[in-house]
Design goal:
The structure is a single chain. The protein has 14 helices and 13 strands. By secondary structure, it is α/β, with parallel strands linked by helices. The chain has two domains: 206 residues, inorganic pyrophosphatase (n-terminal core); 126 residues, Diaminopimelate Epimerase, Chain A, domain 1, CATH 3.10.310.30. The relative contact order is 0.10. The structure holds guanosine-5'-monophosphate and manganese (II) ion (MN). The site of guanosine-5'-monophosphate has 11 residues, from strand 12 and strand 13.
């Protein structure tokens, strides 16, 4: 755990400030939940906080309290840049290095004259002025709860903050099932329910919001599933053409990789998704046990993340990317075999 400059940050925040809170590109439930919760908390403390996210986030997160106040850097560029220019400090949430916001926004942030504060749970964070980094915590949203706790402000958590934090913890733990979910996580979740988070409604808002096309896309993904039993590995591909056929929308492929990991005996799963716009193949990796997909992605696919969940990208074609992936597996045979959890 790294806690850097916490007392100085407290002093800085003793006066009302203009604050921008930033989440990573392709924001997920934890990015949206943690940034919005922190915004609500800062507003309650008398600051003026604005959430700026690099690009679009899935429809199933648009119901989050405060979602309509966020700026999208790619789409509402003037407002976003103005908010950044007028801010006294920028909070970086749920990402560890500036390039995770995408090239355009990274350019703007690199010229920022004031200080950054980071609250994040990813490995190998950049060094910024104020830091709260802990890779053992399941979700940045849990860290925001703990940040509020460190400020002795748990009493300020209302239903809106509780709802945002609950959503971030729920989505980043696969609904409280991953190893990073601790008894402390459950105690925090219990407190969030006491403070007004409606657990049944949140689950339903996030997980029962499928379009018919999304289910058809999932059907396509499952029929593309390839299993490599000798490497305890399975992978899925989705081409641009298939995405188009089923009217792909942001977030439609979220969680699909987990179907590959749900196969008995599989410890390593990947999904390769063609992104015609960015001219890349976007990859999600998942593992069970000791096999580190963070290392695998860092070493071969310009990415990273956590030990059991990471992302990456490839600038060669889909078939070449898949061949590269399959060709790498023999090197990891021993690790893959010993990663198996009963
Ligand atoms: P996902 O596969 O759901 O996109 O991401 C899984 C985890 O890896 C998330 O914690 C995400 O923040 C991280 N991640 C995804 N893509 C990248 C990437 O390109 N680089 C790095 N460093 N982390 C990533
Ligand atoms: Mn997260």
């Amino acid at each position: 755990m790294i806690l850097k400059g916490f007392e100085a940050l407290k002093t800085f925040l003793a006066k009302p400030r203009n604050i921008v809170v930033v989440g990573h590109r392709n924001p997920d439930g934890d990015a949206m939940g943690s940034t919005l919760a922190l915004k609500h908390y800062f507003d309650k403390k008398g600051h003026k906080a604005t959430v700026v996210v690099p690009n679009e986030y899935p429809d199933f997160l648009h119901w989050l309290p405060g979602s309509n106040t966020t700026y999208r850097f790619d789409w509402q560029n003037n407002q976003s840049v103005k908010a950044i220019d007028n801010s006294d400090i920028i909070f970086l949430l749920d990402f560890n290095t500036l390039h995770r916001v995408g090239a355009d926004m990274q350019n703007t942030l690199e010229k920022y004259p004031n200080d950054f504060a980071m609250i994040d749970h990813h490995q190998q964070p950049d060094d910024v002025t104020y830091m709260y980094s802990d890779v053992s915590v399941c979700a940045t949203s849990q860290m925001v709860y703990q940040f509020i706790e460190m400020n002795n402000d748990l009493g300020l958590i209302d239903a809106a903050i509780a709802t945002c934090l609950y959503t971030g913890i729920m989505t980043d733990t696969g609904s409280f099932r991953y190893r990073s979910t601790t008894s402390k996580t459950h105690r925090i979740i219990a407190d969030l329910i006491d403070k007004g988070a409606k657990n049944d409604k949140i689950h339903s808002n996030v997980y029962d919001a499928n379009s018919y096309n999304r289910l058809l896309l999932l059907g396509q993904a499952l029929s593309n599933l390839q299993i490599l039993p000798s490497y305890n590995t399975a992978y899925i591909t989705l081409s641009s053409e298939e995405k188009k056929r089923f009217d792909f929308k942001k977030g439609d492929t979220e969680g699909v990789v987990n179907y590959a990991l749900s196969l008995k005996g599989i410890v390593f799963a990947a999904i390769f998704i063609e992104d015609a716009e960015q001219k890349i193949v976007k990859i999600s990796f998942r593992s069970k046990g000791s096999f580190s997909v963070n290392n695998f992605s860092r070493n071969h696919f310009s990415g990273g993340g956590h030990d059991n969940a990471a992302g990456g990208k490839s600038e060669i074609s889909m078939p070449e990317t898949v061949t590269k992936f399959v060709t790498l597996l023999p090197t990891y045979l021993t690790e893959l075999k010993s990663s198996y959890e009963k």
